[in-house]
From TrEMBL:
This is AcrR family transcriptional regulator. Pfam families: TetR_C_6, TetR_N. Residues 31-50 bind DNA. One of its GO terms (molecular function) is DNA-binding transcription factor activity. It comes from Phytomonospora endophytica. The lineage of its organism: Bacteria, Bacillati, Actinomycetota, Actinomycetes, Micromonosporales.
Length: 201
């Protein structure tokens, strides 16, 4: 029987292989054979840890969630709109890590639409993300960067929609969306929110 350390190391190697496959090929390309080929191992090794495609998919989504939680985040210069800008840049594909992350999430949407369990998990992720954006919007209102009557929820939804629209375009046409342009578009979006305030502080 292999030592626990060997078991854990093998599982980490498998996880890295799963991540590389799904980041490069999407969930349609995530198969036992593809993961085994990525590791230069047998499919029997993969099925020992993941007995079904569903288990493999769940593991890939768990990996994506873990990577989101541990990813280095942009540090805002101030709360409010600066914090909102940083939160959006945390998602937009401005570096290879975020490109891979977005390829994984976008490719998972089709699965989530077809599977009620995965769909509910995706809905909850959106709830958490909008809540995070909402906190920055509330701070912007408190700082006088947005008007007192601003609908905080609607602004958060608009920010989420802008972000994923930009993500999708950048994934399909990366040459048209270099990092400088992505950063400029994010800055312009956030500045546009602030310009709606008739009484800036």
């Amino acid at each position: 029987m292999p030592a626990r350390g060997d078991h854990d190391a093998r599982r980490r190697d498998l996880s890295e292989a799963v991540w590389r496959v799904v980041a490069e090929q999407g969930f349609t390309g995530l198969t036992m054979r593809a993961v085994a080929a990525e590791m230069d191992a047998s499919t029997g090794l993969v099925t020992h840890y993941f007995p079904s495609k569903a288990a493999l998919v769940r593991h890939a989504l768990e990996l994506a969630a873990e990577r989101v939680d541990t990813m280095e985040r942009h540090v805002p210069s101030a709360p409010g709109l600066a914090g909102l800008r940083a939160a959006i840049l945390d998602v937009v594909p401005v570096d290879p890590e975020r490109v891979a992350m977005n390829r994984v999430w976008v490719s998972s949407w089709d699965l989530a639409l077809a599977d009620p369990t995965l769909g509910e998990a995706q809905r909850e992720r959106y709830d958490r993300w909008r809540a995070r954006l909402r906190g920055h919007v509330e701070a912007a209102v408190a700082r006088g960067e947005l008007p007192d009557g601003a609908d905080v929820d609607d602004v958060a939804v608009s920010a989420a929609a802008f972000t994923h629209g930009l993500v999708t375009q950048a994934l399909f046409d990366p040459a048209a969306f270099p990092v400088a342009r992505l950063e400029g578009l994010v800055a312009g979006f956030v500045e546009g929110l602030g310009s709606q305030n008739p009484n800036p502080s």
